[in-house]
């Protein structure tokens, strides 16, 4: 299991083409089977990697905020939603959404989120591996591959296991993953 962020970043560059080829491979597979496998891998790997010792997503990504997120966090900070937006957010021209304007996140202190209970939905759901339709989010998965050790290890394990089975239909998604790591 790889957790060294510098090594992950380096491997992400080296394996970029391979990762895109694997994305194409996954696109042709049964989405529900892939989801089942990814969810099991995510449960196992996320128990072994402590996000709070990493915090790389908070250092390198800019989460988006919806109205509910803004209201909740501004209330906690005891400032108006308008002031919160002006102080912390910027409109992403491509997405048309409000996002944190600076990296690292201003609410990250010593790798710990200081607004854990009030953080936006996007942060609560990251790295999104628990969600359905993994194969429809593969571009984002590849983006997060260089950022999150959990995503990196799930994707690498998928490549190892699925590409080693010539006939994907013979692959047992209920297989025990104790040999990983």
From TrEMBL:
InterPro entries: Puta_zinc/iron-chelating_dom. It holds the Pfam family CxxCxxCC. This is YkgJ family cysteine cluster protein. The lineage of its organism: Bacteria, Candidatus Desantisiibacteriota.
């Amino acid at each position: 299991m790889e957790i060294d962020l510098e090594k992950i970043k380096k491997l992400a560059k080296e394996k970029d083409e391979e990762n895109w080829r694997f994305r194409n491979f996954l696109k042709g597979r049964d989405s529900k089977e892939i989801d089942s496998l990814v969810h099991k891998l995510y449960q196992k790997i996320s128990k072994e990697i402590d996000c709070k010792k990493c915090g790389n997503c908070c250092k390198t990504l800019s989460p988006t905020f919806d109205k509910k997120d803004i209201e909740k966090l501004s209330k906690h900070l005891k400032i108006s939603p308008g002031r919160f937006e002006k102080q912390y957010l910027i409109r992403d021209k491509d997405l048309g959404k409000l996002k944190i304007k600076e990296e690292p996140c201003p609410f990250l202190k010593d790798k710990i989120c200081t607004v854990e209970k009030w953080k936006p939905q996007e942060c609560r759901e990251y790295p999104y591996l628990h969600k359905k339709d993994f194969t429809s989010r593969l571009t984002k998965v590849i983006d997060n591959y260089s950022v999150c050790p959990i995503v990196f290890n799930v994707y690498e394990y998928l490549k190892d296991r699925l590409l080693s089975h010539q006939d994907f239909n013979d692959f047992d998604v209920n297989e025990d993953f104790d040999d990983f790591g």
